[in-house]
Design a protein that fits this description.
The structure holds 2 protein chains of 2 kinds. Chain A is of the alpha+beta class. Chain A has helices at 42-50, 92-102, 107-120, 136-148, 166-183, 194-200, 218-223, 228-233, 267-276, and strands at residues 4-13, 16-26, 31-35, 57-62, 65-66, 77-80, 154-158, 186-191, 203-208, 211-216, 240-250, 253-257, 262-264, 282-286, 291-294, 301-311, 315-321, 329-334, 344-349, 355-358. The N and C termini of chain B lie far apart (54 Å). The chains are: A alpha+beta, B mainly alpha.
Amino acid sequence: MPSIRVVNLKKYFGKVKAVDGISFEVKDGEFVALLGPSGCGKTTTLLMLAGIYKPTGGEIWFDDQLMNDVPPKFREIGMVFQNYALYPHMTIYENIAFPLRAKKMEEGEIKKRVYDVAKKLMIEKLLDRKPGQISGGQQQRVALARALIKQPKVLLFDEPLSNLDAKLRMMMRAEIKKLQEDLGITSVYVTHDQAEAMTMASRIVVFNKGKIMQYGTPDEVYRNPKNLFVATFIGNPAMNLIRNLSYIRKDGRAFLISKSLHLELPEDVAKKIEEAKKQEGLVLGFRPEDAEIVHEESGLGFWAYVYVLEPLGRDLIINLKVSETDELIKVFAESGVVVDKDEKVFVKLRPEGIHVFDSETEELIV
Amino acid sequence: MKGKGKAWIFLTPMVVLVVMFFAIPVILTIVLSFTNMDYTFKWNFIGLGNFKDIATDFVIPKVLLNTLIYTFTTLALFNVGCALLISLLTTSMPDRWGSFFRTLWMLPRLTPSVVYGILWLWIFDPTEHGLVNFIRAQMGMPPQDWLHQAPMVIIIVANGFIGASMGMLIFTAAIKAIPTDYYRAALIDGASWWMITRKITLPLIKWQLLFVTAYQTLSLLTSFEYILIITNGGPTFRTEVWALYTYHMAFSNYRFGYGAALSVILVILGTVFALLYLKMFKFEDLMQKPKVEVD
């Protein structure tokens, strides 16, 4: 299976810069997700990999072959579309056999391969039906079968699960991941659902406005977001942000302060802020699980009052506010924790969970 | 006022119009076909006399043959054939060029029909003032009387050039409504343009093909204005089609009863073709089958 290398890739539609100079690499047999909000350029990138769109600039390499001008049919790719793109007038059999017929394969071989792949995807009973007569989940499997039957070297997925209901989506998520691992086909998976990207991919390319915000493993983009966009886009609930903070040093101790907040910083964090030479317009970020609610001041943290509680069964999300005008802060707590509405509590932060961003550049400082 | 009364108030103007301009003329035509009304406008009922005359009219076999040749050649070559070809080609090229070519094909529609007919008369004028003969003269060839030599070809081409645009519009709209992902999937799977056209595009615009074929058959069966202007059915019945013959009988020879009988037969002919199409295109199969969920 080939590795994919994208170098400074661009796609402009008139004045709209859909993809604006992106570079990333997908290793041989790797499963990479392109993640971002709608209109961020991820599908455009996928269609350039497929050869449907011609890049405005940059290069696409499969191993050491430049693919920019190679037509789709010579790229040895299989693709699964968001709405499956099954031909409504053909039976499931004919739909799956279509790529082989395009190759003018012999009828006996086509039949054997269709039955093989249908069996693998557990759709062999549906072969004589039409797409309109089967359910969404089954259509999804047929689309997968059609992509796999050519024995492609690269698999491209364009939001394949977004038309399924939540339960089926979770199931297919695991199935696609297992299938990809078994077959070892280099795969690129476009999604706007961060849970899908986190659970399925070995690495994630986070997109926004045609540019790559961060490229890394799910753990890296979650634990060490490089900028405010990744911090808020990845994670559910998103990372908590407290904006408009200033950095000061008093009596040798370092603080982040605003009108309503006073947070003492660990020395290593303070040093990095000083190195960045930023005093104003700082943003504090921490994940909901990197904080703990306690009733008296202890260690690193700040005071806030309880705004509303969201029980989730196993966990509890405590929504807090530092002051009336501040943004909501969400903190995970075990469901046994007892707090009252409007109670003043201390939000104790884990030192390694603290992130500080520059609100101007939106980049991470610490 | 109660719902039903109100409904009738809104319906009445349209009902009156439909009855006056549609129902009454149809009934009158049928009744008229059983009379031998002429320029004296007397209702003399003669039973099936007109229909017996039609059966023995020595011009009728020629007219029928002309009608079939004219209708189905124009239909196959232009109104469906050429329309489909233009749609397929113009939707396969960049949209800017596609629109340009389609606009070109729309131009005859925007020309008044008499002007359009006279243009063709000018193109095939037997003297060197005609376009074709002018070009021939530049190459040192003698002028030809085209309207005498190939009148049927000329009326088919003249009708076809204008008739193709309707099918073209409908097919183009239908092709553009096919989800792009079908084509993307087919391209990735390595299907050729021909395979995509045959296996995806054509089956998915079957409804529109049926509609245009049926609709244009009926409109070609009854249309005669360009033939009237270009050849007036001549020379000697060589381009006389059923609708034009009806017109000539009724309005040149003032045999209104006979003309009415001819048009009743034309309606029956049209109905037969429409029913044949429904069978041929397997109309029922185009309906969505109920969704069945097993396991």
